[in-house]
Design brief:
The complex is a heterodimer of chains A (366) and B (156). Chain A has 366 residues and is α/β, with parallel strands linked by helices. Chain A is built from eight helices and 17 strands. The radius of gyration of chain A is 26 Å and the shape is elongated. Chain A starts with a helix and ends with a strand. The relative contact order of chain A is 0.09. Chain B has one domain. In chain B, a hairpin with a 6-residue loop joins β1 and β2. In chain B, α3 runs antiparallel to α4. Chain B is globular. Classes of the chains: A alpha/beta (366), B alpha+beta (156). Chains A and B meet through β9 and α8 of A and β2 and β3 of B.
């Protein structure tokens, strides 16, 4: 028995000593001190070394989009690191193509700042700001969608293009001990710079939507950052076909405000699909837009109206209604927002009806 | 057996609630590898492979997607109805490899028994690629015996 126990104890002791040495070394040797971050060869930041680049940039109010919270699993937080990052890690290479590898693109969440770095950040990301807001209104739109209004406190105003989105910081709450960011399209009038409105659909067991629906109250502080995204109305006079479903309504409300503000008179027909009559929303607001915008028409579509609903409008899938409505879409532009299934089906129908693929713009839920 | 650093990191990620509410392990005290091995044993007893199961889940999800949240009868097994609801956002695979999946919930109902099973696109991937059905108590834990009873009743 002792013959077995002694070597086990010796090996265990050696392991414990080595672990202690590593802990001490991490604290003493791995003190990277102050490191210089040179951004786009224009700006220099002096930061404490030892943290991931993504975290340090966020602390410096430079927001790099990321979906996984810095765990190295989404591959979104890519940046060019020209000098100082060392060899690319095995956790990064699966996300990179040959061009990116050649251009020193790295996942900013995986690059630990150990020395001076020279990095390139796309200019558009510098316009992204963090906003401290207060939730001032929560309105039920359907059984699973709500409109949330956030009034900006610091900074007090935001500039965004109709169609863009923001990220909402979901704080820790009972059952969700970690902060997460989630992206939502802006639904409010871009001219109204002191507030942001978001249309959010509840995701079953979703971290952020559960907080928004079950915990967030009027008067609560909320942190947002943005604006992000390139989904916007093209600068042409081509007649437009809008297609959306669910919370895909949000960017179109914003685009319609923009069209009214700018006096855009282009023809636009908006097909909004829902499975039942209960999935339809904002009909009064759409009627107002029909009165204010000369060429605008709202066409709600219900796949399977409830028998007692008295629904008189279009029925079937939203793509069925588009097909019934048009025979030739050559020269039109398509704007789509919704699920990948709806967008793929809509693109197929629009192209079959003669619309050029290059004239179709979409914001997929992804 | 002691966990390797990679297994430890994976377990931390699976237990974290940063990617999905409540985490992928739920309240399950077992290590992820134990969960995977125990579920593998259950499937072996049913003589059902994860590939066969994954393929059938894909088939049903693909059948439902064009219906945009509406029910459709399965032409292969007429007792089954299926629908797929899409939500804003994506779910990222917690394993250290690229993998982002649409936030979509497929629901299958057995019209004869009334039994229902639901899964996400990420569930299909985690079952096919990692043999992982999630831990007990996780919101999207799929019980191998329950899903087999609905999709492959001849085996149960």
């Amino acid at each position: 028995m002792m013959e077995l126990l002694v070597p086990v104890l010796i090996m265990g002791g050696i392991g414990a000593v080595l672990a202690s040495v590593l802990v001490v070394a991490e604290k003493v040797i791995a003190n990277y001190g102050i490191c210089k971050l040179t951004i786009n060869d224009k700006k220099e930041l002096h930061v404490q070394g030892g943290k991931p680049l993504l975290t340090v940039l966020r602390e410096q109010k430079i927001f790099i989009p990321s979906a996984c919270g810095g765990r190295g699993t989404c591959g979104i937080c890519k940046l060019k690191v020209l000098e100082g990052a060392g060899a690319i890690l095995p956790t990064e290479t699966p996300f990179m193509d040959q061009r990116e590898l050649a251009e020193n693109v790295r996942l900013s969440c995986q690059v630990k700042i150990r020395n001076d770095l020279r990095i390139v950040i796309p200019e558009e990301l510098f316009s992204i700001q963090e906003f401290q807001t207060v939730c001032t209104r929560i309105t039920d739109l359907t059984y699973d969608m709500k409109l949330f209004r956030f009034e900006l406190r610091d900074p007090p105003e935001i500039d965004f293009t109709a169609g863009q989105f923001v990220q909402l910081l979901c704080p820790r709450y009972k059952g969700s001990p970690e902060e997460v960011y989630r992206a939502y399209s802006v639904a409010s009038d871009p001219q109204q710079k002191n507030a942001i409105e978001l249309i959010i659909r509840r995701v079953p067991h979703g971290i952020c939507t559960t907080w928004c629906f079950d915990f967030l109250k009027q008067g609560d502080p909320v942190s947002l950052n943005g604006p992000y995204g390139q989904f916007c109305l093209g600068d042409t006079n081509a007649p437009a076909v809008f297609v959306a479903g669910g919370s895909g309504m949000a960017p179109f409300v914003c685009l319609l405000h923009h069209m009214r503000n700018k006096g855009i008179k282009r023809k636009a027909e908006y097909f909004f699909g829902g499975n039942t009559v209960k999935d339809q929303c904002l009909q009064a607001e759409m009627s107002r837009f029909e009165q204010q915008l000369e060429g605008f028409k709202f066409i709600p579509v219900v796949a399977r109206p409830e028998p007692d609903s008295g629904w008189q409008g279009e029925t079937g899938l939203v793509t069925d209604a588009v097909r019934r409505h048009y025979t030739d879409l050559a020269g039109h532009e398509g704007y789509l927002c919704g699920s990948p299934g709806m967008i793929d089906a809509s693109i197929k129908v629009l192209v079959e009806l003669g619309m050029k693929k290059t004239s179709i713009f979409y914001d997929k839920f992804s | 057996m002691k966990e390797s650093p990679e297994e430890k990191r994976l377990e931390e990620t699976l237990r974290s609630s940063q990617m999905v509410a409540g985490g992928f392990m739920g309240t399950d005290p077992r290590r992820p590898l134990e969960v995977i091995e125990d579920d593998e044993d259950l499937l072996d007893k049913l003589k059902l492979s994860i590939h066969t199961l994954g393929r059938r889940m894909h088939e049903l999800t693909d059948l439902a997607i064009p219906q945009m949240g509406n029910w459709i009868d399965d032409p292969r097994q007429s007792r089954l109805r299926v629908k797929a609801d899409d939500y804003n956002g994506s779910l990222v695979c917690p394993w250290p490899h690229p993998g982002s999946y649409q936030k979509r919930i497929t629901t299958v109902k057995d019209k004869n028994t009334g039994r229902i099973v639901s899964w996400t696109d990420l569930n299909i991937h985690m079952i096919e690629a990692h043999g992982f059905f999630e831990g007990k108590g996780a919101f999207f834990r799929i019980e191998p015996a329950q899903i087999a009873a609905i999709l492959f009743p001849d085996l149960t």
